[in-house]
Each structure stands twice: as structure tokens, then as C-alpha cells.
Amino acid sequence: MASGAGSNFEALVRACRQGPLAATVELLVVNRMDCGARGRAERLGVPIQLLDHQLYPSRDDLDRALIAAFQAQGVDLVVMAGWMRIVTPVLIGAFPQRLVNIHPSLLPSFRGLDAVGQALAAGVSLSGCTAHLVAAEVDAGPILVQAAVPVLAVDTRASLAARIQVQEHRILPLAVALAAARLGTSGIEGQQR
Ligand code: GAR
Fold it and tell me: What are the tens digits of pLDDT across the range 101-130?
């Protein structure tokens, strides 16, 4: 699931195709056709489905459409790779322990929108990113992997976000493998599945 540039989506596809993640990305769902993730999926040959949130009367209705899309593909695990909509217990309940989110802060600090700007405004000297299982509360749930990134005096939102994204691309495939391992499938090539 992606709403933005799709760099985390691409990192996941590459981790599946070039190792070490023993998985395949069956579908990308976007909520806006003009998002960067779409072009990446086309280039990478991953099927795309548009679910425009504006066409659904409620968050629950959008989540029901997401569930139908994922079930049609028979997916085992769902990743919110920059999905900028709040999900409901409807989606979370359909994929218990199987819904992973990536967020650009060291949770539980700086939940919600503009986490990088929040970290700069707070003056912290260390920020980073968190991959976690999704719970009903926004940007919360059992933490799978975190990476810390120093905040430099010269940092702008863009420079800090760029360094955090390098770490996101590293930890998100690890988090997917860990989530799979918790379910009893290793997700890592070379290990028993
Ligand atoms: C990522 O930095 C991700 O952590 C953030 O959106 C960005 C998407 O980048 N997600 C959130 O803020 C969710 N609360 P991408 O489209 O290049 O992967």
C-alpha cells in the first residue's frame, strides 16, 4: 500500500528479487494514480490497483475494498509503505499480525504527520525510523525493527528525511522477514519456511 514516492515499495520489491527476502510482491495498491509509486510498479512489472479513498464514504468502506483486493491475490502479509490514510480495525482484523507499517521516527516519539519536521522542531539529536505491526492507534503497535539516525545541526527536513529513508529501505525488508518468522514462515532465504 503506497500513497507517495514509493521508494519503500521499490526497496521491498528489490529485496524480494535480489535477496534476502523469500517473498514476492503480488500487488501494489495506491490511493492516488499520480503518486510516484505507480511509475515504479509499472517499471518493475508489479500489478497495480487504484483505490481512490475519495470514492469511499467511510474509512471502513475503503478498508473493505483493500481486503477484497488483497484476498483476491491471496496475499499472506500486507505492508503500508507510505500509506497516508488511517486504517481501521476492519483491515487490522483481517490481517492479524500480518499488517506492517513503516514510520519516519523512533516510535513512540513523533507519531502522525510530518514526523521528520516534528523531530527537528523538538530539537532531538537522534531520530530514525520504525517498522512495526499495526495496531488500532495511529503509528503504534509491536515494534519489529528500528534504526537510529543522528540529527545534524545543518539538517533540513529534506536532508534528514533522505538519511532516514536510506535506513527505512534497509529495515523494512527485515521487518517483513521478522513478521513472517513470527507467523512460522521464515521469510529469509536459506532458512526453513
Ligand atoms: C516514508 O518515509 C514513510 O516512513 C512515511 O512516508 C514515507 C513514504 O516514502 N510514512 C509515514 O509517515 C506513515 N505515518 P516512500 O513513498 O518513498 O516510500
Answer: 999 999 999 999 999 999 999 999 999 999
Taking the CA of residue 164 as reference, the ligand 1 atom at the shortest distance is: 2
Query: 132 catalytic, yes or no?
Result: no
The cell numbers describing 126, all together, are 537522534
Ligand 1: which residue has its CA nearest to atom 13?
Answer: 103
Please indicate, yes or no, if residue 111 is contained in any of the structural domains: yes
CB atoms under 10 Å from CB of 120, counted, come to 18
Query: What is the chain's Cα-based Rg?
Result: 16
Least Cα distance to 91 among 131, 54, 60 occurs for: 60
Q: Kindly state whether residue 192 falls inside one of the protein's structural domains.
A: no
Pairing of the two strands 78-80 and 126-133: unpaired
Find the domain containing 112 and state its range.
7-182
> HSE (CB half, 13 Å, CA atoms) of 160?
27
Give the model confidence (pLDDT) of 20-64 as tens digits.
899 999 999 999 999 999 999 999 999 999 999 999 999 999 999
Q: Cα(158)–Cα(114) distance, rounded to whole angstroms?
A: 11
DSSP letter for 55, please.
G
Helix (H) or strand (E) segment spanning residue 145: strand 143-150
